[in-house]
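Homework help board

Subject: predicted structure for assignment chain

Our instructor gave us this sequence and asked us to write out the predicted structure in token form, then describe one feature. I got the tokens but I'm not sure how to describe them. Can anyone check?
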Amino acid sequence: MDLPEHSPASTAGISAVVEPVGPGPLGEHALHLLDALSMPAGSNLSMLSAIVEGTSDSVFVKDLAGRFLLVNDACARAIGRRAGEVIGKTNAELHDTEVADTLVQQDNEVVTAGVTMTFEHAYEVDGATVTMLVTKSPYRDSNGRIVGVIGVSKNISDRRVVEEEQRAEARRLSDIIRLQRAITMAAHESTPVAAEIALHVDGLTGALGCAIGRHDGERVVVESASGCLVDGLDLRPMLAATQHREVAREDQLAHWPPAGHPELVSAAAVPLREGALTNGVLLIVSDRPGAFTDADIQALQLIGGLLSTAISRVSAFTENRRLFEDRGTVLKALKSSEESLRDSISAGHLGLWEWRMSDGAFLGAGQYATILGREPGDIERFDQFLDGIHEEDRPGFELAMNAALVDREPFTYEYRVRRADGSISWVGIQGRFSYDEQGAPIRLRGAILDVSDQKLAHQQLMQSQKIEAIGQLAAGIAHEINTPAQYVSDNLHFLQQSLVEVGTVVEAMEHLRAAVRGTGVATAALEALDAAIEVVDVPYLRREMPRAAQQAVEGVDRVTEIVRAMKDFAHPGETARTQVDVNSALENTCIVSRNEWKYVADLVTDFEPDLPPVPCHPGELQQVFLNLIINAAQAIGGTGAGNPGAKGTITISTLRRDEWVEVRVTDTGPGIPEAIRARIFEPFFTTKPAGKGTGQGLSLARDIVVKRHGGLLSFETAIGVGTTFVVRMPFQPGAASLK
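My token output:
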């Protein structure tokens, strides 16, 4: 069939752009080639021929009658010809009718539509199928009229072979999956797993026949067979051959081919195992030499493994059914197990949770709502769960979660949560992602636990260790200071006493000067002495030197007092309780903490004398007093921001009240607002700016007083007046139980 004529007959060309099979420059190269070929109609074909011979793609040129005017060697080879055999011929002369008609129809479509089109067609060359991908474009003359078709084609036969192999492998995999489901269903229903399985194996491996045998203790029983093996076959040699092999071929099978079947030249057998015991065999046979490929053997091994698993499950199911024939017993056991699990979760204050990633739903069980400080219905989506995480900890949580997603490992994380009442608590969370068959994450499940007490205990331990280290350092420094301070003190006392004696000598000299003056005796020496006394200003020295010595002695005494207080305060804590003088402990604490309060407050003490000693841990009690004094100083310091020169007052008093020793620490700060009074002893709660407090001072103090010593810690406050913290410690064994 000729192409419709759109212009007078003239020389025409045809080019094609091969679509790239994969990433690379092929598409761009073909476009450049198309531009090079698209020269005006009637141009010198020898020039065009020179251009197209430089490419490995098939390039051809036709006129509107479908005659080939130009082909390169690649194009001629693609159809099994030489270039000279193609020139001047049409598709009908080069291909069979069906192929030729298809190619002419493609040319018609390109010319009629007037646009570039891409086609794929196949034809036989020397008994082999050749698949070509060709893109054709209308060829126009200088006036824009279509006068032919140009094109370039690419042999994609190899790619089609690979694709067909991939499709065959996909079909094989699909068949294996269906077979796996059939085997699994048989195992769950406790039916004979070998029934009709052999028929599926034939289809998967292309076998002429298949047999499945089980060893019943005395002989090998054929449970299922297909094809040429339905008449029966002695499977004992196959079972023996697979005892210590994963697969046995025909050359590894004794007496093969079997009697009565000389045509079965190919065979493969795999073991069926229950644990370490081989008690069955799966056999396939064929009359074609080397019939079974590696892929067939892999499929056979996979099916053998599935059958082994199914057989084991059936055995286990049968045993379980024998043990739990009474359905009521099973249900009762399950119910009891569920109740035990719920009791364990409740007793352990544990919460369970799940994030369903398909719709973002958040599901919880156990104590999860209580741990998060919410009502059970408050958290229905995962983003609501994330909103409850403290803003400073949220990035770390998301980082840990994303790392677990990438590594496919479980993750743990500890973070703070904001409870519905505004309080802060610490929780520990564990989670693991679950994935679908394609490896995509579908859900995140885990457990959650309130770890506030553990976190507080750990931080208190760290603080105690830090204080202990500082105490040891301070004790060492105090010891080093004490020795030179003693030297200075002794020498100052010596100088002070010597100044008194020197003063007596100077006074005698004054009397001598007065007696000699006017007698004419030693006049020159007397004048020199008067001049020296005037220069040195002896009266001033006699008046000021004793004062300076006295002040130096007082300073050294102050240093000695501070050093002694530091040594007492930094003394290592006793593991057992000792009788402690509360007044002395307070005095030492006031001295040690002086730098905290001396710039913002005056400190006043009112200690009741003869207080009875209190049985306690000295270091812990001093830690409580230190926390309360520093807290009072910071409260006063916060109110003096607008008046730097103003100082408040910290008053510390002690008294005996019944069987208790009471310590009161009062400040003239702003008082505690009503809204936060109920939370003042909560762990990690603080109103101080960052760097000024951790929210553990008062919590630690209450823990030491109440839990460790059976005492009481309370406060009295008034806005604009100040706050008093009251510590009550028992000094009688019956006042409180010692913990």
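Reply (TA_rk): Your tokens look well-formed. For the description, you could write something like this. The chain has 21 helices and 22 strands. That's the kind of observation they're looking for.
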